[in-house]
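Incident log, support desk, overnight shift.

02:14 A customer reports that sequence design results differ from what the structure should imply. Their input is reproduced verbatim below. On-call engineer (initials T.W.) acknowledged and began investigating.
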């Protein structure tokens, strides 16, 4: 089972597009709400973090589901891939309903206690009141994406991503300005875009994937769900932790002042483009490693990872030359541009370390060792937070905070490589 650069690219591109959906939806919301008011713009960012934290729970479960499906596909037990899909789909729908209920009842009470601005708090709650329904569409989408990535049939993800963007942009304009719904209109537009994206993926799967060949008949097997959850329980915690760490990172940056915080927001926004490349290639690596195990070819792990990393460098490194132009597109404030320039270069160089770090980490996930991956995340997070705590007590420039990201991804990569070299299959 030989995965060439071309095949890796053809599998990875649709995954990149599907991951790009959430990023583009958030960017579109911010662009429109920036013309409504500062309260709405700030509230959409805070609400977006809350929604992302909940979304990552479903994303983490879908990683384990993808590993199980890919393993069966690699073993050529094709009919069992669909059998694994439906228990995962049922769990994700149940989880989405539960999170919607908790968000509607408990989250407003929590936000009122944590937030100091009543206006921002009300705007956050108004956004989440409608945005949370997106989980009912994004979670089933994650299940279908796990199935398609697991069987390496990912072309439909391009159509689904394009649909979401084409729907979200005009709907934002219509609901926010045309109907005067403000921040609630942005939330409705985003959730509706996810519904349309799910509809496209569902239609494609039902029409173009062999229902008999892949066992796509509604069934529910607790044994399969238990197998998936044994893997995904850890990835759910891992995914949630990744969002929590970013929150703590920006909490530390806030101590440096408004200019540093504004500069970091720009850097974080642009870094999303690189994270799409890294996360897509890493996710595909996990699926292909699972297929290699199923095919009895674990000796191909490292050649596969090296090819994925080279492909990622070819995609990301040319963007390094555009940093001045990109920063200028976000703001005309000279102080913010100056503050962002050096940290932005630090963030871009971090791509050299983040790509192999996450590729090798997801290769470990592809072997099914999700508990080990979670432990790697915990040990790395502790070192990361210790460094941030130390920097917060020193007078260091903003770039030093962003350089801590090097430590995080290098530790993840080193631990993963050691594990893959020592593990016997």
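02:41 Re-run completed on a clean worker. Output:
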């Amino acid at each position: 089972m030989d995965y060439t650069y071309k095949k890796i690219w053809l599998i990875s591109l649709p995954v990149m597009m599907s991951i790009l959906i959430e990023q583009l939806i958030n960017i579109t919301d911010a662009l429109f709400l920036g013309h409504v008011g500062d309260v709405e713009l700030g509230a959409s960012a805070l609400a977006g973090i809350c929604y992302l934290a909940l979304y990552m729970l479903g994303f983490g479960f879908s990683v384990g589901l993808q590993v199980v499906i890919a393993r069966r596909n690699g073993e050529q037990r094709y009919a069992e891939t669909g059998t694994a899909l439906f228990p995962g789909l049922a769990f994700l729908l149940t989880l989405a309903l539960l999170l919607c209920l908790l968000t509607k009842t408990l989250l407003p009470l929590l936000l009122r206690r944590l937030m100091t601005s009543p206006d921002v708090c009300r705007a956050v709650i108004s956004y989440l009141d409608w945005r949370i329904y997106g989980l009912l569409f994004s979670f089933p989408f994650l299940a279908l994406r796990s199935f398609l990535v697991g069987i390496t049939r990912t072309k439909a993800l391009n159509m689904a991503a394009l649909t979401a963007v084409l729907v979200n942009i005009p709907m934002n304009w219509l609901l926010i300005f045309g109907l005067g719904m403000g921040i609630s209109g942005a939330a409705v537009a985003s959730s509706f875009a996810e519904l349309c994206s799910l509809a496209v993926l569902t239609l494609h799967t039902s029409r173009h994937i062999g229902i008999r060949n892949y066992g796509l008949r509604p069934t529910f097997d607790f044994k399969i769900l238990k197998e998936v959850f044994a893997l995904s329980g850890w990835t759910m915690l891992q995914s949630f932790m990744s969002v929590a760490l970013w929150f703590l990172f920006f909490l530390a940056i806030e101590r440096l002042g408004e200019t540093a915080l504004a500069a970091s927001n720009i850097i974080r926004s642009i870094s999303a483009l690189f994270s799409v490349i890294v996360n897509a290639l890493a996710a595909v690596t996990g699926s292909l490693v699972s297929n290699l195990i199923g095919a009895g070819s674990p000796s191909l792990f490292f050649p596969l990872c090296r090819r994925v990393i080279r492909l990622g460098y070819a995609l990301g490194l040319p963007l390094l030359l555009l940093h001045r132009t990109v920063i200028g597109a976000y703001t005309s404030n000279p102080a913010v541009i100056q503050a962002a320039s050096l940290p932005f270069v630090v963030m871009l160089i971090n791509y050299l370390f983040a790509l192999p770090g996450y590729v090798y980490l997801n290769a470990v996930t592809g072997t099914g060792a999700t508990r080990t991956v979670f432990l790697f995340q915990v040990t790395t997070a502790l070192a990361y937070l210790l460094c941030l705590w130390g920097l917060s007590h020193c007078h260091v420039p903003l770039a030093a905070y962003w350089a801590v990201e090097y430590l995080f991804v290098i530790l993840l990569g080193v631990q993963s490589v050691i594990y893959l070299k020592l593990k016997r299959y």
